[in-house]
Design a protein that fits this description.
This protein is 44% helix and 15% strand. The chain is an alpha/beta fold.
């Protein structure tokens, strides 16, 4: 097999190493909200040691060091939300953001002591560049302060997520770059056409910034260019139209079946005039069920390595971890979060 098609362990490692290297060049400050979790503490130390990012770790310093005596936390800034001198500032910021929703000053002060809310307020106030949480808390606990405090980026109707899919050792003729991007695989159960279009545009941007790909975006369906009629097909076709109006220079097409999107001969047969068919590297699934099933099939049966889901669409970078993550996964999430600041 040609060397260009090989994407084995070494290449997968080099992809991640490249992400870390580019993150290090940005010198961003990232807050990790879960100092009570040893994996997070290990990741904080590793990020500083490898100079991937400057790290603020939230929690009680004495407890963190007592629980992790072998971890060298030199260079890691540890902040206790409950005793931070910035707590009054953040509480007032939270009150101003939420008073229209009925939040009182007393409620804001109590809420600001919560580590994830405190981290989101640090991000909102510009004291850090990005946030990573979720190792020991639910997705809702991470995304709630994100949606309430950071909110969506201008012009974005909904937050979404993507997975970076790294091809296996045996390589794949349909993955010449060694990786693909799938969305949305972990966040929104359903989409409107506008939301799906925004997801596609955001994912193309992520593919370029994080993976270094020149995005060719396929909007997936069980139909190719009107081969089937159904409301689900119409939703995707309308999303293609909206995305084309919002991002006219983006290489994007649909609706396309997966084989038409990735196999050149099938793409030429089913959608001969398409700028994307047969050569797509970014795949937008029509809903969360399809995306989640699709990436897990690729991972478990196809041997792809899945990195993510990574959040996109927030006004500032904020990412949720899997509660089954390893310290190395957290380090990678920090590096990706730093890269998401590149055009902020």
């Amino acid at each position: 097999m040609a060397e260009s098609l090989k994407c084995g362990k070494k290449t997968a490692e080099s992809i991640v190493a490249g992400i870390k290297s580019r993150a290090a060049a940005l010198d961003r400050k990232i807050v990790l909200c879960e100092g009570e979790d040893s994996r997070v503490v290990e990741a904080a130390a590793a990020c500083v040691k490898e100079k991937i990012a400057r790290i603020v770790l939230l929690g009680k310093e004495a407890d963190i060091k007592a629980k992790n005596p072998s971890v060298d936390l030199t260079g890691v800034e540890i902040v206790d939300p409950e005793t931070s001198p910035k707590l009054p500032l953040y509480a007032h910021l939270l009150y101003e953001l939420r008073k229209a929703k009925g939040m009182t000053e007393e409620q804001a002060e109590a809420q600001a002591k919560d580590a994830t809310f405190f981290g989101a307020l640090m991000l909102k106030n510009g004291d850090v560049d990005g946030l990573v949480s979720g190792a020991c808390h639910s997705t809702a606990n991470t995304l709630r302060p994100g949606l309430q405090i950071i909110k969506t980026a201008p012009g974005v109707s909904a937050v979404s997520s993507f997975n970076l899919m790294i091809a296996p050792e045996r390589g794949n003729e349909y993955v010449p770059d060694g990786m693909l991007v799938f969305a949305d695989c972990g966040l929104n159960p359903t989409y409107t056409s506008e939301g799906l279009a925004d997801c596609a545009i955001a994912t193309a941007k992520s593919a370029r910034e994080i993976a270094g790909l020149e995005p060719k975006v396929a909007m997936l369906s069980f139909s190719t260019k009107g081969s089937a009629k159904h409301d689900n097909v119409t939703l995707v076709a309308e999303a293609v139209k909206i995305a084309g109006e919002k991002a006219p220079d983006l290489a994007l097409d649909g609706e396309l079946q997966f084989d038409a999107a990735i196999v050149p001969s099938v793409g030429e047969f089913k959608a001969p005039a398409s700028p994307v068919a047969g050569h797509a590297n970014v795949f937008i699934f029509p809903d969360l069920q399809a995306g989640n099933i699709g990436y897990k099939i690729a991972e478990r049966l196809g041997g792809f390595q899945a990195i993510g889901p990574i959040c996109q669409g927030f006004a500032k970078p904020l990412n949720d971890l899997s509660r089954g993550c390893k310290a190395s996964d957290i380090v990678c999430a920090v590096a990706i979060t730093a890269l998401q600041t590149a055009e902020k």
